[in-house]
Amino acid sequence: MNRRYVAPLLIAAVALVAGGCQAVSLRDPVTEQALLVRDLYNLVFAVAAVVFVLVEGLIIWSVIRYRRKPSDTKLPVQTHGNLVLELVWTAIPMITVFLLFIASWNVLNVVDARDASKAEVKVEVVGYQWQWKFAYPDDGIEIFGTPDQNPELVVPLGKVVQVTLVSQDVNHGFYIPQFLFQRDLVPGHVNVFQFTPNKLGTFTGQCSAFCGLLHHAMRFTVRVVTPEEYTAWLADSKPKPTPPATGAIDGTEKEWEIKISAAKHVPGSITFNLTNNGTIPHEFLVVRTDKTAAELLSDVDPGTDRIDEALLDVIDEQPEYEAGTPGAVTVNLPVGHYVVMCNIQGHYKNGMYADLDIVDGPAAMRLTSRMAF
Question: Can you tell me the distance from the alpha carbon of 214 to that of 234, in angstroms, rounded to the nearest whole number?
Answer without folding.
Answer: 31
